[in-house]
Amino acid sequence: MNPDTEQQDLAEPYLGGLLASLGLDVHYSRAEKDTLFFREETGREVPVLDFVGGYGSTILGHSNPEIVGYAKELLDQGVPVHAQFSKHPYANELAQKINAVIRREFATTESYSAIFANSGAEAVEIAMKHAEFDRVARLTELAGEIDGNIERARAAVAAGAGVDGSGSYGRLATASGVSFGAAMEEVIAAVRAANAPRLAAAPVFLAPEGSFHGKLVGSVQLTHNAGFRSPFSALAAQCRFVPVHEPDALAKTIESVRRTVFDLAVDDGAVRVVEREVPAVAAFVLEPVQGEAGIRVFDRRTAEHVRRTCEAAGIPIVVDEVQSGMGRTGAFFAASHVGLQGDYFTLAKSLGGGVAKAAVTLVRASRYRREFELVHSSTFAKDAFSTSVAIRTVELLEADGGRAYQLAAERGSRLADMLRKLQQEFGTVVKEVRGKGLMLGLEFHDQSDSSSEVIAEQARAGLLGYLLSGYLLRVHALRVLPTASAVNTLRLEPSVHLTNAEIARLEAGLRGLLTVLRDQDGAALLQA
Ligand code: PMP
């Protein structure tokens, strides 16, 4: 190896530099429950209390002994990790187990087919792809019906029928330039010419403002944060972000993207130009608790409004439970708290038990297109190792009548109580405490006008949350990080094993931090 490059940091070196500047460049070498450990230069192991929880991946804690033990067992048995295009009974077992949860939490009898993936963004993209596959199939059916109607109209004209200039003829004339009284073949050519681009137009996705659904080419377009999304907007279908809490916003957005195609109808001995609705929207995609937007819980009224509006417009709903799912909010699916049964569900993060990379997309039977299975696959997805670990994870969550869900709700409310107490004490600094179960956010008031130059400057650069994280890590051995798109909000997503003593440790650290902010003590934040 070239000795010059040997010393260089080549693994995301820019990010490494940023972490160093914020005091967050720590290498954790061991993890257990809600604690990560790093080694000082002296060799001493230092515990850090972790409230980031693998960004929502460790609902059962880091290195959960039952999951680790099972993972070792699987590897010791020589489980064939790579056996793509063979029978995968464990995948069916996982799908069955998750279906049993869906039946219970949504009081439904409808089954969901499962397609497997490796990451959250990939699970979202499977939902996007399937929704588009379905939309294209519906478009093809529509185009076929129009072809049939054109033939019927042609036969009717040959038998003496006339072409009626009323109805949508005027709109066809505007769209294609065909004149009134044109011959039948000209009208048909005009219909085909006007329809072709309308049938081929890219789909539109809808999502609530603030949404975060991943950073791959397709899913990043559903991620509202412009910094992540805009540079790549030419690569994929576009999303309209809807202020869903405004009563008419969703209906107006759907209306604004409505498209029709022309068709020909024969009645009463005349051929008339009519219009047919095109399925322009592929899907509405939402998080029942928005994670990266600063931990924002969807309320029942909004959920019901979205459900009704989408149902009326024939738009499928993708419920992205990548972060909120797997028991974190006190139920396996956060959407079950507001009775929002998705046409699609996505799961990832904690599905792999904090050990494996596993993700799955579930598609409701009434929407499912089985041919999709022949056009989508991934080498690692559905492998025996990650899928078996996911089964064990679901079993652990479901054990003892869903004790893990009760723990998430109870531990979460204890943690929230502590945060609300701090909010009362430090009302000038803490703006809001939000969330459900073990998915909580602590939002700070904007500090861009702080009397401390350091605090104001970092706030204006959108880095204050990270500076606060650096302080909590260095001074209080606490790992807390902001949400990705709302950096004034610190995320708290520990495991169900969180103890009262650990909540008290967080309280002490946060009290230290809030005192520094209340006193506008920028120098203390930079303290080594
Ligand atoms: N959807 C949601 C709701 C998420 O929170 C995330 C990650 N924060 C993703 C999708 C993307 O998951 P991944 O990072 O595993 O690709």
Automatic annotation (TrEMBL):
Transferase is among the record's keywords: yes
DNA damage among keywords: no
Molecular function GO labels: transaminase activity
Coiled-coil zones: none
Pfam families in the cross-refs: Aminotran_3
Cofactors required: pyridoxal 5'-phosphate
SUPFAM superfamilies on file: PLP-dependent transferases
Keywords: Aminotransferase, Pyridoxal phosphate, Transferase
PANTHER family referenced in this protein's UniProt entry, alphabetically: ACETYLORNITHINE AMINOTRANSFERASE, MITOCHONDRIAL (PTHR11986:SF79), AMINOTRANSFERASE CLASS III (PTHR11986)
Family the UniProt entry places it in: Belongs to the class-III pyridoxal-phosphate-dependent aminotransferase family.
Name of this protein: Aminotransferase class III-fold pyridoxal phosphate-dependent enzyme
Organism listed in the record: Streptomyces polychromogenes
